[in-house]
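Inverse folding, one chain.
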């Protein structure tokens, strides 16, 4: 409770401090005028753009119901939870410095396993004086993947694709700290490179953190809403040679309610697919863990198609170990029935803005996920590749630029793995009510 109150107090204090700086010009009559905006949160800034702050947030309330492989005994279970409950504070100071602080009060967000308290999704400072190059420092998710680059507020399906579960470390900070250099060249090229120091559940033997390196490059010769051609490549690598860690490669297969990392889920009856690896993997078992990702997207008017392919290799470091390999991909089709195009900013898709304020915008989508892993160690030594296929069919209603109501039906089929009841397939649905400001 103390941490929660402190986080709220800190955010309020910072907002007041920054606003006091910004208002100094008006008070003394020798500074820039102040502009206040209330659409989409509270934003205050000086007309010379030297100082600003914006207070916003997002709330995502989910309900899901599922059966078959998604539960241990195959019977129907459900889950209702806050997927995210963010308070966000960001802005500019002294023209060339930007900051962003996002605090999640939800017990079910991310994978931080903080069941009793919220956590800082982001707390970063960036230097923008080398425009168009930006240097960011602090806690933030490193670049890896098109869907990850798109805010959780505006991803098409309620949960991102299952292929990300194969490399859950690649685009997550896991409570670590890092530095990233990103920039654009012209209107069609984007690139980033970063390093982050973090601890994957267990400390390295000598107390030295695990270092992770990320690279992302994007080429988008067509880069306007409703007229997009996007190609990208990603690479991430970390060293596990002196680290004991949870080495399981697992997936919820689009149904987060089986295990939300914070309660309000299916409890002990929730079944989460294990494709490879083992918990409590000892130090010295594996060496380099690397992931390569390819991404592509095309949009014309209200129609868009996008996909990503990811491959991962965990190199064995001990004589009695074999390499672990995993591959996954997805393809997604989306169409806005009311005619609006998805916004696009270099490197990522953004929101759909309803043209009709009374009707809102209606979007339908289908996504196919395919993931597999090969592990000839331990429990998986005598098992052929574990593979899962997931079909996602859904609809989103953008009532306005703040409210989004959506849901999707999920159907999955698993090869070479079952639940305790012998089920190798399952289905369910997820609905979400979202408000952003």
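Residues assigned per position:
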């Amino acid at each position: 409770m103390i941490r929660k109150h402190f986080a709220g107090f800190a955010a309020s204090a910072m907002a007041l401090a920054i606003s006091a700086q910004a208002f100094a010009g008006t008070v003394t009559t020798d500074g820039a005028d102040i502009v206040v905006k209330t659409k989409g949160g509270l934003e205050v800034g000086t007309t010379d753009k030297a100082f600003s702050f914006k207070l916003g947030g997002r709330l995502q309330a989910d309900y899901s119901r599922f059966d078959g492989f998604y539960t241990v005994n195959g019977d129907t279970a459900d889950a209702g939870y806050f997927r995210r409950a963010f308070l966000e504070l960001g802005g500019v100071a002294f023209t060339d410095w930007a900051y962003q602080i996002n605090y999640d009060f939800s017990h079910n967000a991310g994978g931080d396993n903080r069941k009793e308290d919220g956590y800082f999704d982001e707390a970063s400072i960036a230097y923008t004086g080398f425009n168009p190059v930006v240097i960011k420092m602090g806690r933030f998710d490193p670049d890896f993947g098109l869907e990850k680059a798109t805010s959780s507020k505006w991803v098409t399906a309620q949960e991102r694709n299952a292929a990300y579960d194969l490399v859950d470390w690649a685009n997550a900070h896991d409570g670590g700290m890092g530095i990233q250099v990103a920039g654009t060249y012209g209107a069609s090229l984007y690139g980033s490179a970063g390093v982050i120091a973090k601890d994957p559940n267990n400390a390295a033997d000598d107390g030295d953190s695990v270092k992770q390196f990320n690279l992302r490059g994007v080429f988008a010769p067509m880069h306007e809403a409703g007229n997009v051609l996007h190609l990208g490549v990603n690479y991430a690598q970390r060293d596990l040679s002196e680290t004991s860690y949870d080495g399981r490669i697992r997936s919820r297969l689009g149904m987060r309610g089986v295990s939300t990392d914070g309660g309000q889920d299916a409890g002990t009856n929730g079944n989460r697919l294990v494709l490879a690896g083992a918990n409590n993997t000892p130090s010295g078992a594996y060496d380099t863990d690397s992931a390569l990702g390819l991404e592509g997207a095309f949009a014309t008017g209200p129609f868009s198609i996008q996909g990503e392919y990811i491959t991962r290799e965990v190199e064995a470091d001990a004589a009695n170990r074999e390499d672990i390999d995993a591959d996954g991909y997805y393809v997604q089709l989306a169409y806005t029935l009311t005619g609006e195009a998805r916004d696009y900013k270099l490197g990522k898709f953004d929101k759909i803005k309803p043209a009709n304020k009374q009707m809102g915008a209606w979007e339908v989508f289908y996504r196919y996920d395919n993931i597999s892993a090969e592990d000839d160690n331990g429990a998986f030594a005598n098992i052929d590749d574990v593979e899962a296929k997931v079909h996602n069919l859904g609809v989103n209603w953008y009532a306005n630029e703040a409210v989004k109501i959506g849901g999707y039906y999920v159907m999955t089929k698993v090869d070479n793995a079952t639940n305790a009841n012998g089920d190798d397939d399952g289905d369910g649905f997820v609905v979400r009510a979202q408000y952003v400001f």
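Confidence is low (pLDDT under 50) at residues 1-29. The two ends are 25 Å apart (CA to CA).
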